[in-house]
Amino acid sequence: MSYEAADRPWNEEYLQQIFKDLSDTNEDIRLNGAKRLNDFVTEQSRELSSEGFDGFIDSVDYRISRIIQTQQTQQQIGCLIAIDVLIGVDYHENGGKKFSKLYKFLKALIGKHEGDVNFMILVSRSLGKLLASAQDGFLYAEAVKSEIQRALEWIDDLHSDSARRLMATLVLREIANNSPTLFYGSIQTFFETIWKAIRDSDIAVREHAVASLEAGISVICKREQFKRELFNSIIDEANKGLKQPSIESVHGSLLALGEVLQIPVLCNQDQFKDICERIMKFKDHSNRMLRRTVMSLIPKLANSNPESFVNSYRHTCIQYLLSIAKKHENDRGAAYLALGEMSIALKRNIGPYLEQIILTVKIGLQSKNKGSMEAMKCVRQLAQACGPSLNNYLPEILDLMFEMGLSTTLVESLSQLVSQIQTILPSVQDRLLDQVSLVLDGQHYYHPGTPSSFRKIRSKSNTVASVDQKRITLALKTLATFDFKTHVLIEFVKECVVNYLDHEQPTIRKQAAITCTHLISGPGDNLPTRGHAAKVVAEVLSKLLNVGIADPDPLIRFAVLSALDHRFDHFLAQADNLRCLFIALNDEIFEIRQLAISILGRQTERNPAYVLPFLRKTLNQLLTELEFSADNRNKEECSKLLSLLVKASHQLVTPYVEPILKALIPKLSDINPRIVSYVLTALAEMVEVGGQRITSTVKQLLPQIVLTLQDQSSSTKREVALRTLRSVVSSTGYVIDPFIDYPNLLDILINFIKTEQLTSIRLEVLKVIGTIGSMDPYKHAINQLDRKSKQHQISTTLQGQQSVLSAENSDVTFSLTPSSDDYYPTITIQALLRIFRDPSLNTHHNAVVQAIVGVLTRCPSSKFSTFLPQVMPPLLYSIRNCEPGFRKFAFQQLATLVSATKQYIREYLTEIFCLIHEHWHASNIVQILSLVEEISIALKDDFKVYLPDLLPQILSIVNGSERVTNVVTKVLHTLEVFGTLLEDYLHMVLPTIIRLFEQQENNVGVRYSSIETLVKLSQKLNFSDYASRVVHPIARVLNESKDELIPPSMNALCEMIYQLGSDFSIFVVMLKKVTSRKRINHPKFNELVTKLQNHQPIVRNEDRSDDFSASSSSSSSDAQASGGGSQPSGSQQGGANAGSGASQSSADDPNTKTKEKLQEGQLKKAWNAKNKSTKDDWNEWISKFTVELLRESPSPALRSCNHLAQVYQPLARELFNASFYSCWSELSVVSQDDLILNFEIALKSAPPEILQTLLNLAEFMEHDDKPLPISKSLFSELAEKCRAFAKALRYKESEFRESPTAENVSSLISLYNELQHHESAVGIMKYAQKLHAVDLKESWYEKLQRWPEAQGVYEKKLSENPANVDALLGNMRCLLSLGRWDQVIHIASETWGSSNVDTRRQIAPLYATAALNLNQFERFSDAVTVINDNEIQGSYYKSLLL
Questions:
Q1: CA atoms of 834 and 845, how far apart (whole Å)
Q2: pLDDT reading at 198 higher than 50
């Protein structure tokens, strides 16, 4: 998987810097770079997912491949170091894939032979390391075979250059040493070919070819049947070479014979003499190289066959070497080395020549130049060979050796001498102590109690200052390693060695610490616990502990604590020392924490009252972090520490067995194999402590262990699982039953024995089977059958439910009136939610949410319980399912809502936190953190229950490699808001904050903010247990050249002084060095340090503290300006904090205003309806009026919708009635009259859609007994005009009750018919005729569709007046409706000819319809020709004729 630069979850700049250091010419920098790369790869393998780590390794591989393509040797050396690191790091990548990639790199480098011997040696060593770490497989075998073949071809090629042949010999040696089985397949070809390289003209090729020959011989020697043949073949080839005239051939053959002499077989006397003669023939050769080769071979001859050598060649060889040592100054060193090695081979047979050798050695010791060190080594080897026989010669030799001064060779030689000759030990001890004292103290050593009159006092300041630092280190190391058991050196340690604990050089401080712990512990197992010696030990140990906590170099702190074994427990159990160890338990370096927890665990038996409470707190922290941490590295470290704590302190852990197991068992399912391995180790320790008490937990534990055993991804995991299983069985007595309860367990274990490659796992399997016990084979077979039958019966069914939020219940406004306090918020929220639920209106959802929140924040707090159930479900649902852009805004508004509602939000917190965890993305993080801040403020201490799940996610934001400044700053502000809630989680929070300000690649503003956060938290929380973890990083920050960071860093140190009090004294020396070196002057810090040193009480001055904080804020602004960072200002602090202050106060105030002031002037401008004529004019009028009503509404809820209504007019229309009602009662009488006047203008002139709106308003006003003063007849007429028949009917009925006229009856009948209320129409007609004597009209019957009665009336009128056209047409309409089409045609035919054109046009539609129904198309055609073309019916009928 490829990552874009911005998406890489690791620090690419840091990786680039590491590779730059790997290519540096300085070896120390390269070694440091290798260590950093090792740590970085290990860290990423812990923290990243498998996919993410694959991307990280790809990035590393890409850098290596780019370097390989260059021609710069120094960069390629860095590349080799990187490959070595990757080989050594155990990370979760397929072994074959890892081997294939790294071998590909090395194969390319093997071909780059530019003549640099050191580079080629490094390449070959890397190849050997890769082969040694690889597992057997096809790729592995093919690679080895390919390299062997290529190397042999290079050697065999006479035209190849010497660099290629050298590379070939190096590769062959590494393959032989690290892959002997595959190398053996080509052994015959190897021995046939390697002689060409042994006789090569290049001396480097010859020497390394012989080294390859040695490796090949070691492969053969493991196969007994081939030793003799090998011996003879090599001798024959060597003899051939010795006979050749070239110096190179002779030299290579001599070297080969030297390797033959190492073969562990006995050659006969003749062969040995022949080899000796051939070698000694060249001892006086003119070529110096051959002479030195012969000298190096003489000890090998002596060691190969000592008896024959003594009889035939001892005298000749010794005299030869002695003459070389005396006469040839340049070869003297080689002669001394040969004499020494030969003496070891001959042992006491060297005795007759001992005096001659000693005389010659004295010459070398006296020279103090060439050969002096070799001469000293020769003395050491003579002592090893001759023992007490050398005693008579030692006084003079020792004088000469001590005159050479303190050196590593001297110390090693003296150690060998005293081990062989015990009688010289006192003298050597005194003289060596004197040498050490001269180096360390500048004066001679005197035993304790020596009177001052016997001491030669001299100035030691200049002497000590001039001593080389390497000699100081050597002197300290000598004190720690040489045998000074007979001397009591505690006083010397106190007076002299302890001073070096504060030396500038870390190597000297480290060695001084090691020396102190070694010397005060003494030779026995117990330290003095009483008397003066005990006081001295306690004093030195106190200083050592100060170094182990306050030293800036973690290696020194580690060295001190690692030396404090059980012998120091009596002193370590004291309260003052325990406080130091408590600080060390929270050291920034994990390995130091491991040591501290082991030491403290031992003290539970000596001082339980003081230790156990602190360790209980630590145990709780470890379990919390293990359960909730999202950081793999943290979980891994916690499981390690927990395992150590359990192992070291059974007394502490015993009462907490069950909760610990409860926290550990779920972690066995973790995808990280390292975490599982460490958890299994901790479980193994736990079951040993718990014993029978964990029997109830075994049923939960065993399935997880069995599942882990089946995991093929990690052999370490399987091995630890086996050990844990054995511990569980042996501790609980749960024998035999595991095979019954878990039928596949035995098959798994047996399969391990058959297939597992690692011997350690196979042995562990046998132990497990033996511990569980044997099982009846028949019963096992029955169990297997039962298991198979159950597998057939098992079926899993997945059921899923998806709940979708439905619409609210029926409109609650039915039960409310405008006079109710809840009315306006309710109808506003209902209107807004309708928009919110409409997906097509998603462009307005931001404004909707803002309006809803505005409504709620302006409501009295007593109403939250009413409105939140309506708002929260759809809001939370939309956040879960909406687009990312809206989600960010929604979280921000939700934060504002929480800020206002406070405790009322509790009911919805579960779903809110589910949403937070689901959408914890970088794009939402600032808004989510604002929401979390508001929740924590609302809940106060009750928020603690959410921190375990939430805090790891918050910290993971800044623990990632890619950090955004404003996001990091927001996280820091969130931590400040949490404040005292973080008391139980400081072990998680502090490392994150410290990493932020310590990493130099971070923005200066971010670093400043993180230190400021540390200061603010330290004012609320107790950091005393984490002093070491805080002070050391701050000291490193002060060491930088970042002036902006100095003020907050010094402020942080001052806060630590306030918290620690006198315990801070251990850091003062170290911090003073830093401040003096960087010339930092901080008055407050200096004042507090002075009080500490004078043992004065440290009391916080509140007034000065406030001034101090103010100055910090000022400096913070400067840091922002210089560093480009951004501090959390008031406008940035969560968004919700800044924006919800007013709403919060209003929510908490029971006397919140429920009405806003109305401005009548603005409304009058809006309702002015004069000079409006066109439809557009009226639309603009109604739009402006509705929005202005919302803007000026006395209701805060309605006013909240003002901005949304301006962009979404339907909302203003929907709330028009409510907003009008809210304003109406607040208007003066004059304004009301003016409003009605303009209303009447609008009612008479506005288009129908606006009339409808105004009619709805009038009806709404009447519902709450506030009708508008406008006539009902006008409303009825306008309603009918708008086809609002129901509304018109209501007004017309009211008018009929007041005036029951025929006109009103006719209107009512028409309205009833429009509304399909035919019975009502008949009823009103009869009612009007009966009670009000209203004359009936024939048109009423037609309206009522009572066709027979209507026809009767029309026929009656025709009989009275046949020329009545209206009666004729009415009669025809009735007949047509009754389906009497033939009568219609008859009447039309009779009157058609006598009628005028107008009458025909009125008759024609009825005539044509009847003719069409009877299929009389001629009549139909006659009638259609008369119908007007502009009428719909006429056009339709004419189209039928076409």
A1: 11
A2: yes
- Note the pLDDT tens digit of each residue in 254-307: 888 888 777 755 566 777 888 888 888 888 888 888 888 889 889 988 888 888
How many whole angstroms separate alpha carbon 210 and alpha carbon 213?
5
Phi, psi of 225 (to 5 degrees): -70, -15
Q: How far apart are CA 895 and CA 172, in angstroms?
A: 70
Q: How far apart are CA 741 and CA 710, in angstroms?
A: 17
* CA–CA dist 1193, 1226 (Å, integer): 9
Amino acid at 518: H
With residue 500 as reference, give the H or E element that holds it.
none
Q: Is residue 989 within 8 Å of 983, Cβ to Cβ?
A: no
Distance CA 760, CA 706 (A): 18
Residue type, 130: L
- Three-state SS for 1344-1383 is CCCHHHHHHHHHHHHHHCCCCHHHHHHHHHHHHHCCCHHH
Give the start-end residues of each E strand in 245-332.
none
Find, among 73, 74, 64, the residue nearest to 26 by Cα.
74
Q: Among the listed ranges 223-227, 640-644, 857-861, 893-897, which one has the minimum average pLDDT value?
A: 223-227
In this structure, are residues 106 and 82 in contact, taking their beta carbons and an 8 Å threshold?
Answer: no
Full-model pTM? 0.66
Furthest-apart CA pair in the chain: how many Å? 177
Once rounded to an integer, what is the mean pLDDT over residues 377-402? 86
Q: How far is CA 137 from CA 96, 99, 182, 184, 958, in A?
A: 8, 10, 12, 17, 42
User: Are the beta carbons of 272 and 311 closer than 8 angstroms?
Assistant: no
Rounded Cα distance between 869 and 865, Å, is 7
Give pLDDT, residue 1104.
Answer: 42
DSSP readout, 202-267? Answer: SHHHHHHHHHHHHHHHHHHHTSGGGHHHHHHHHHHHHHHHHHSS-HHHHHHHHHHHHHHTTSSSPP
Unique residue bearing structure tokens 């907050």: 1048
Query: Structure tokens of 497?
Result: 């060695």
Helix/strand/coil percentages in the chain, nearest 5: 80, 0, 20
Closest C-alpha among 610, 1195, 1309, 355 to residue 851: 1195
State how far the Cα of 1005 lies from the Cα of 997, in Å rounded to an integer.
Answer: 9
Which residues, including other chains, have CB under 8 Å from residue 229's CB and lie 6 or more apart?
Answer: none
Distance CA 1128, CA 972 (A): 9
Retrieve residue 1322's tokens: 């008949």
With a CB cutoff of 8 Å and minimum separation 6, the contacts of 1081 are 1075
